[in-house]
Amino acid sequence: QPGIVRVASTWDFGVAANQAAWTVLGQGGHALDAVETGVRVPEADLKNHSVGRAGYPDRDGHVSLDASIMDAEGNCGAVAAIEHIAHPISVARRVMERTPHVLLVGDGALQFALEQGFKKEHLLTPESEKAWHEWLKTAHYEPSINSEVRDYGKTNLGLPGGKDNHDTIGMLALDAHGKLAGACTTSGMAWKMRGRVGDSPIIGAGLYVDGDVGGATSTGVGEEVIRNAGSFLVVELMRQGRTPTEACKEAVMRIIKRRPEATKTLQVGFLAMNKEGEVGAYAIQHGFTYAVCDAKKQDALLPSASVY
Ligand code: SD4
């Protein structure tokens, strides 16, 4: 009997991204096409300062993007610190499908994208440039917990630091053929050091999919996720029998256990989907949200449970 067809993604802009993914999934299309189509929406959104075009730059003013994509068979591709390409997720997919490699970075990733026919563009918008000039006045790097507008009720928990610092999109989909796929794309932490790479393009950190078990993706301070091989950990915990929510919670607790003090004031959120299409999430801090779309819930936005 046919199983559930579903897509889930991080944060409130996941709603629009899911709807785009649903145009593929709802017609019996493939999960891999769905996640690529879905995350291209926030990549193109000029109001979103943490993904793709209009993403906030690094401290030297360069918009540098990270993205990864993975299917149920362990095929994967990623780009890191790529500049001037509006849809890094599509370059990541080309890395997966047209090279013998998994990850291309920086100038090499750009060269490959141009060879593949992607257009070289200026991605720093006047608004993002203005925000960067504002930031330069203090040049104080302190990731905010959640973007203010997305924080349910509390505003950055009264903590210092900039707003709109992060909000990556991670997306997981299960198609009518019973296949899972995932994608993750971001401009990374605003005002990061030049050359800094986060968790999003690191397979096993920001994204992991295993067709026998499920998939996971993450958002928040990538350094903490890389340190703990976060998304791989979530999938392995599901393999051991945890529900998606239990697995996300345990991975969050592992991150906190490693650095109890530092993690009091930073955000990491995980989103997971098992191969039955069950979805769960967990975050360190209050304020993480995720969007779920299937034939019944066309555009549900849900608050994640959290430690604080
Ligand atoms: C990073 N994890 O580059 C990304 C940023 C992010 O929500 O997720 N923001 O570390």
Top keywords for this entry?
globular, 23% strand, eight-stranded mixed β-sheet, alpha+beta, binds N-hydroxy-L-asparagine, five-stranded mixed β-sheet, 308 residues
Describe this structure in words.
The chain has 308 residues and is of the alpha+beta class. 30% of the residues lie in helices and 23% in strands. The protein has eight helices and 13 strands. It has an eight-stranded mixed β-sheet. It has a five-stranded mixed β-sheet with strand order 7-8-9-10-13. Strand 9 (268-274) and strand 10 form a beta hairpin. Helix 2 runs antiparallel to helix 3 and helix 7 packs across helix 8 (244-258). It is globular, with a radius of gyration of 17 Å. Residues 148-166 have low confidence and may be disordered. N-hydroxy-L-asparagine binds next to strand 8. Keywords: Signal.
